[in-house]
Design brief:
seven-stranded mixed sheet, 4 helices
Length: 153
């Protein structure tokens, strides 16, 4: 991976089709054109969508939404061949750096069997605070609710 350049950009409308296709690789029941609708009104909504590029190829993304002083992470995904190389960490850190002054807490829901994601978020200091029983379908399973609180200065 030496010599590769990883960059992060904020998504715009031209990325909507890629986002929909990319998300279909990871998540069942993805709603078509959701990103087109979000990005059409992007300047007037509270979404943040950052895309990770490796040597000009899109390899991952993070989608989050702010509500008052809270950030909800909806999706964070990296193409499988680029996982465990720090790219998801870079996307999360980038998001935190760009929003930390505005938010106090970050929330995420994770499938109880997604051990890799649970471990990833724990590494960043997220704590489990609740369970939503039978939240996910295909297959039916619980969601683990996790929270990260920014330290006040």
């Amino acid at each position: 991976m030496q010599g590769n350049i990883f960059c992060i950009y904020e998504a715009d409308l031209k990325d909507s089709e890629w986002l929909d296709k990319f998300e279909n690789k990871f998540f069942i029941n993805n709603r078509k054109n959701i990103y087109k609708n979000i990005l059409k009104s992007y300047e007037n909504n509270d979404y943040f969508i950052f895309i990770g590029f490796l040597n000009d190829a899109k390899i991952g993304y993070i989608v989050a939404h702010t509500i008052h002083d809270e950030l909800n992470i909806y999706n964070l995904a990296i193409l499988e061949k680029y996982r465990n190389k720090g790219f998801a960490s870079k996307l999360l850190c980038y998001t935190f750096e760009h929003l930390s002054r505005e938010i106090n807490s970050v929330y995420v829901e994770v499938r109880e069997t997604n051990f890799q994601a649970l471990s990833f978020y724990r590494k960043f200091g997220f704590i489990e605070y609740n369970i939503r029983e039978n939240y996910y379908s295909f297959p039916t399973e619980n969601a683990i609710l996790m929270q990260y609180k920014f330290q006040s200065d």
